[in-house]
Amino acid sequence: MRQSSVVALSRRTTTPRSLRLVLPQNSAWRGLERNGNRPQPSTIEYYRYLNQLAQREFGDTHSARLLLKSIDYAPIMRCYGNDWARVLRLFEPELAELFAMRPDCVVVCCNTLHRAIDELSDRWPAHIPIIHIVDETARVALDRGYSRVLLLGTQFTMENGYYAGRLQSAGLEVEIPALGDRQHIQSIQSAIAAGKEPGDAPEYFRSLAARHSHCDAAVLACTELPMATDARTSPLPLLDPLTIQCDAAFRFA
Q1: CA angle centred on 145, ends 141 and 147, rounded to 5°
Q2: Which residue in 110, 111, 103, 144 sits closest to 17, CA to CA?
Q3: Identity of the highest mean pLDDT range in 9-13, 55-59, 143-147, 244-248
Q4: Contact at 8 Å (CB) between 148 and 216?
């Protein structure tokens, strides 16, 4: 994973007062291609979708009010799978700075880092809720009548048990792809995060979903994967935690 995001929102009256977006990334904020840098793919999607929600509710001339904070994500990413304690040490002060902005709620826009959020939960102000990407995805899945889901994400997310375990705790059965598929999905995600075209990824994911047709839906538990899939042709319904999470945050704000 090359990027992750955190959103802090303030309640609105007629328009949103503030959507505070904090982006722990491997480089500075690139969403607007400032200084000629390549935009980070999933950051663009969060930015675009939040603005679409604002325009849908308040009119085409409105924009979401976003405060963006970018941190260097590479040191965090390098610790996945080998030094989780350091992930917590690196991530905690960044989130503390976010909470100091006194938002009404916080959204961590990275599937993997929700594990850190849970483990650091006693460090945050109790009156500022975190819109939890896994819990919101589970809620939507259950509301739609799904009982068994296929979990897709980075290899770390699919293998470390956190995401699957939390979905299971909510009452869902969770299926994980075979090792070869997990490795291939990781290669697709890495390519997209590096700014490369996903190539035959949509066809691969169609084939993968067909092989798991006994599941009720697939969870795209990585913010890059929606760019590599096509819900219109997928044999399984696709749950996109990115949009689910943004919808929940926007409703709250």
Answers
A1: 70
A2: 103
A3: 143-147
A4: yes
**d(C-alpha 253, C-alpha 243), whole Å:** 15
**Torsion angle, CA of 164/170/175/177, rounded to 10 degrees?**
-30
pLDDT at 157 over 90: yes
Residue 239 forms beta bridges with which residues?
A: 219
Give the up-direction half-sphere exposure of residue 191: CA atoms within 13 A in the CB hemisphere: 15
Of residues 154 and 15, the one with the higher pLDDT is 154
Please, which residues have CB within 8 angstroms of residue 195's CB and are 6 or more apart in sequence? Answer: 38, 41
Cα separation, 3 vs 24, whole angstroms: 7
Q: Tokens in use for 68?
A: 């963006």
**DSSP secondary structure letter of residue 40:** P
**Most distant CA pair in the chain: distance in Å?**
50
| Mean pLDDT within 31-48 | 52
pTM of the model: 0.84
User: CB–CB of 19/95 below 8 Å?
Assistant: no
Side-chain-side CA neighbours of residue 117 (13 Å): 27
Number of residues written out for the chain: 253
Q: Is the dihedral of CA 191, 195, 197, 201 positive or negative?
A: positive
CA-to-CA distance for 98 and 93, rounded, in angstroms? 9
Q: How far apart are CA 105 and CA 20, in angstroms?
A: 9
| DSSP letter, residue 238 | E
40 phi, psi to nearest 5 deg: -75, 125
Q: Output the pLDDT for position 240.
A: 96
Rounded Cα–Cα distance for residues 43 and 224 (Å): 9
